[in-house]
Amino acid sequence: MKRKLMDILACPIDKYYPLELHVFQIKEEIIEGLIVCPKCLRWFPIRDEIPELLPDELREEKDELPFLKKWKDEIPKKILAEGNPFNLSAKVRKDR
Asked: 10, 15, 30, 86: which sits with the fewest CB atoms below 10 Å from its CB?
């Protein structure tokens, strides 16, 4: 993903702008990272240079939690604990 794309992206859920960008892996473009809406705390992964800005109903926990776990040291703690539609705190509560 090109960093310049952030200039035009808004949250697909609540239309908030600007979004936060967290870059985890970069070459010529952003390979892996996270886009965060600071208003609704929704997070959207960037995987293989593609931002995945899907609505909640098209996302699956089994696909999203491994991404959070892989990058947990880089992801803001607020997203790990309270992020939507999935977060690691919710997973811990379900496992108990």
From this structure: 15
